[in-house]
Amino acid sequence: MDTNLPQTSQPRIVVIGCGFAGLRLAKDLAKLPVQVVVIDRNNYHNFQPLLYQVATGALEADSIAYPIRKIFAGQHNFFFRMADVERVDPARNVLETNIGEIHYDHLVLATGSLTNFFGLDSIEQNAMQIKSVPNALNLRSYLFQNFEKAILTEDPAQRQALMNVVVVGGGPTGVEICGSLAEMRKDVLPKDYPELDLKQMEIYLIEAGAEVLGPMSKESQVQAKHYLEEMGIHLRLNTHAQRYENGRIYYSDTEFIRTQNLIWAAGVNGAALDGLPENAVARNKRVGVDTQNRVLGLRNVYAIGDVANMVTDEMPRGYPMLAPVAIQQAEQLAANLGRLLQGEALQPFKYTNKGSMAIVGRNRAVVDLPGDLHFGGFLGWLTWLFVHLMTLVGFRNKAVTLISWAISYFSSDKALRLIIRPFKRHDFAERSVVEAAEKKAATSAYIPPVSAPEAPVVGG
Ligand SMILES: Cc1cc2nc3c(=O)[nH]c(=O)nc-3n(C[C@H](O)[C@H](O)[C@H](O)COP(=O)(O)OP(=O)(O)OC[C@H]3O[C@@H](n4cnc5c(N)ncnc54)[C@H](O)[C@@H]3O)c2cc1C
């Protein structure tokens, strides 16, 4: 029991997840007379907003991830266990993990989110996602592997499918990866693949809404759309990706785009855990909390960040799944846990909106600030770079990222294009999805799309 954690007279606060929320909370609990136990399935904190740069060869993975034990070196009340939490048992105050059971006095869920494929199985089994460092590295390798294959094929349609990229989801992640891919097409790929005609490589962005960057201001939406079009991205707005079959992404019964590079950036669900009261978990798998981040129906369990669904008059659909919300909820909860230990009343969460931004490419970014302030272009781009650099964890990561960006800016190059993953399409899908697909393949006439015969072109 308790995976060799020391037993003390101090209350134990267990935090599941060391993303933006868990990291801030555990840091802010340093001075309280409590034992802080952080559990994460990875031994590093991952800076998700820059994952797309790892996926497109602009940054190395180590510059956006930081070892958790190093972050907390010197914090005496801190303990870390690398583990996957499988279930919460609130009746016993115990977590079931793959390394054993862990007891808690107070529990904080900071598990973030998971990609939501909206039940589109064929897309889930074949699309690449950008939620983790392995996802981003796989995506980079896979793109370059397909270019190596494009050189070898003599079939022009197959060559184009190997070079085309389709990104689904026009939020910041989709927009940012499209912009970065367009820069690769212009600056990097022609140098590496002079045998290929890069004019044949098309980049498509499919978005169900009428605009890209849905939650941002109208000005930012229009400006980002203009930037994307200027960079040669084909926008398919008001369009729903429906299924992926035989190397084609269908957006109606008959219309499709041929691609072997499908990137899904269209939505996320909360990463709720089994064992929580059923009525506390919403359909989008976010966990309902009160204004003090306490999970509905539980006395000593809290949720913060992406996984927490706090519905207020100000935010009737819950707070957005953004890093500043996660950080501010963590700060508030740390203060509230301090109050709890003192026997004082807990205070409700209040969000300070510091604005939002998205980058499309070199000298092209859009920024919205509170008070309906908007700007873009070079100033927006500089602001984006500065804010992201300052938010990275650790001096080394900041320095390496700054140097990498400076080199890329002046050389118009993205240096990191090693293929470091073995070719395997299912590397991109979650293990459960792979297992389901394999089971289906074993019991039915399911044909994996990679080897499926090509049908005649009727669209796209
Ligand atoms: C590609 C991408 C780009 C983004 N860009 C921006 C941006 O520009 N600006 C912005 O504000 N936000 C952005 N976001 C959103 C932002 O990253 C999230 O809002 C933020 O990470 C939420 O923090 P969190 O701590 O709640 O969750 P996370 O940061 O996701 O951390 C969750 C942690 O929990 C761990 N975990 C989960 N389940 C378990 C389990 N069962 N057992 C053990 N460990 C577990 C995970 O390993 C992870 O370390 C982006 C997200 C993505 C994916």
UniProtKB/TrEMBL annotation:
Gene3D superfamilies: 3.50.50.100
Domain of life, per lineage: Bacteria
Keywords noted in UniProt: FAD, Flavoprotein, Membrane, NAD, Oxidoreductase, Transit peptide, Transmembrane, Transmembrane helix
Membrane-crossing residue ranges in chain numbering: 373-395
GO molecular function: NADH dehydrogenase (quinone) (non-electrogenic) activity
Enzyme Commission designation: 1.6.5.9
Domain spans labelled External alternative NADH-ubiquinone oxidoreductase-like C-terminal: 354-410
Domain named FAD/NAD(P)-binding: residues: 12-330
Enzyme class name: oxidoreductase
Catalytic activity: a quinone + NADH + H(+) = a quinol + NAD(+)
Listed SUPFAM superfamilies: FAD/NAD(P)-binding domain
Pfam families: NDH2_C, Pyr_redox_2
InterPro entries in the record: FAD/NAD-bd_sf, FAD/NAD-binding_dom, NDH-2, NDH2-like_C
PANTHER family in alphabetical order: EXTERNAL NADH-UBIQUINONE OXIDOREDUCTASE 1, MITOCHONDRIAL-RELATED, NADH DEHYDROGENASE
Similarity section: Belongs to the NADH dehydrogenase family.
Record's protein name: NADH:ubiquinone reductase (non-electrogenic)
